[in-house]
Amino acid sequence: MSSIGRVNIQRLDVRLDEARARTDQLRAQLHEHNHRYYVLDDPTVSDAEYDLLFRELQALEAAHPELLTADSPTQRVGGAAVKAFAEVRHRLPMQSLNNAFSEQELRDFDRRVREGLGLPASGDLPSAEVEYVAEPKLDGLAVSLIYEQGLLVRGATRGDGTTGEDITENLRTIRRIPLRLRGEPPPLLEVRGEVYYPLADFRRLNAEMEAKGQKTFVNPRNAAAGALRQLDPKITAGRPLAFYAYALGVSEGLTLPRQHWQVLQQFQAFGLPVSDLIERVAGAPGCWQYYLAMQARRASLPFDIDGVVYKLNDLAGREELGSVSRAPRWAVAHKFPAEEAETVLLDVEFQIGRTGAVTPVARLKPVFVGGATVSNATLHNLDEVARKDVRIGDAVIVRRAGDVIPEVARSLPEKRPADARVVVLPAQCPVCGSPVAREEGEAVARCTGGLTCRAQLHAGLLHFVGRRAMDMEGYGEKLITQLIERKLVSSPVDLFKLDAAALAGLERMAEKSAQNVVDAATKAKATTLPRFLFALGIRDVGESTAEALARHFVSLKALIEAAQSDAPTAEAEKKKDRFPLLQAVPDVGPEVAAQLARWFTDPHHLDLLAELRAVGIEWSEQAAVVIEGPLSGKTFVITGTLPESRDAVGARIEAAGGKLTGSVSAKTDFLVAGEAAGSKLAKAEKLGVAVLGWDALLQLLEQGPQL
Ligand code: 9MJ
């Protein structure tokens, strides 16, 4: 860096084209130094030398604002503070990972992968182990970075996996995130990874906060979340967040590698930071070795990890395996054991959940465990309390892992005081006084008060207004408590009957916010059937089941009719095939079907549905749009690696009227098979299903099937 010594202020007077040439040169140098410092951890200049270059560029840009570019190293903190983050819909959902907690669960994962790929069981010779990529599992926040023509144009949080928040300006302040990719990036590349707070910086931050008399962060994850949530990027810029890339999202024009390992190598070539702790391992034994090695290194790592992740290396195999609900079948997070600490059980209270479930909650002498102070923990249910022989006054072991609710793991009877008391289930609900009942064979006791119980009503309403349900903004915990206490609301229907005048009398409710809340209710009336079904809070009906029901039945009426004709009569109870209509829905088994049948035959619930309709709740009831085209009426399955992403190929087929399904059966018309196609190809050949290569598919898309 010999030129820096000669910087002088007269340079600012040079002609524009000279200035342009120099800014280009400075940016290239600064990008290179940033990359060496933040990504490769191998700087070749001192901080002072870097600063000189940086200041020269700043001065030139100040003198020639027309030369400023968004990817200039001076523009990391360019954005102004915002009032709120905009929503971003992820083009490909950001999935979460299933967890494994033991060596056995890791082996089960490997077995499911082998079965899914049609491989013989591990240990049956001749069989090679499946190759996995093993990665440390950073305890931070997952983000998505979109690069267009190599430029960082958008960064977003994971959010609920479908919709996140646009935090581009905050992510731009993270030095390890390149503003411009190196090498020859494709026109579109989405990079996913984890933003985290390095431990040394976290300790420094907390020491500073403490010195200033401010509240400290409980753990690095919260510190990272706090920094990313700042509406003013200048504050984020003052927090030294870090980033590692670990997954590919959408891309266009990228020659798709065959292996995840190669994706990570490509990332590095693009200048993205990839952890050097990532390794390729063979089968469950290789994964287990990696787990043990990481566990041993955990305490000396410069960042927090809460486990390791194993991912199938072969990308075609991943497509073959697909996902269940929101998690891929081809990966698993193997978590480190939860941290434990000893404390005293001061008392047991009973909480009433949305479905009336009575949960014993431990009130504890506060204790620091798993990165947080814990004073309440779940005891799950009374069977568990009895099994663990936990008594009030006992010394107990509390366990906490990551985001999981803390639990009382066991008691220490050897330390039991003479006045320890046995925990008894209350006969009446502590909130509404209705009898508490426990059905035969069920571990859970329930309050029988239904929506007459304030606790059930409160939890039910919170669920109803939730973001993934009716999405009614402004209806928080406190507002709902007040609405119930003042008897303004005794059912979800009442939420739609409130007017601004009634709301304005409540605490912390100015006229304008009262109107906003009323407007949110009005807006929420137009919804979708899956959201509405989920909002009803039927036991065991989560979001994905609600979606499956809506897809299958299309209308609420059809669902109700099916549930009612499936409702168990004494005669049907005897038969093995109970709930045939409901169980025809993918993912609905006998237990969920029983809940549905019960819910939709209860007259109170049918009244509730009628009332919700009467206050104006609407959703469209249309079967998925049928597109007419050359492939109408034909069913396709896609497998293997194709020149375009599976989504893109699927979109082409659907645009031509074809229908996509996930697995090959006798009803499949065509299997589109790319390279490295596996068990689906074998099955198609066995069933005599027509197999198309890429060129044959393109021809078919143009001409339709030749009859
Ligand atoms: C973490 N947290 O370190 C994934 N993760 O991959 C790693 N998370 C992930 N991979 C797909 N290393 C979804 C999440």
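^ 9MJ complex. The pocket of 9MJ is lined by residues 95, 97, 135, 137-138, 194, 246-247, 309, 331 (CB under 6 Å). The domain at 2-77 is CATH 1.10.287.610 (Helix Hairpins).
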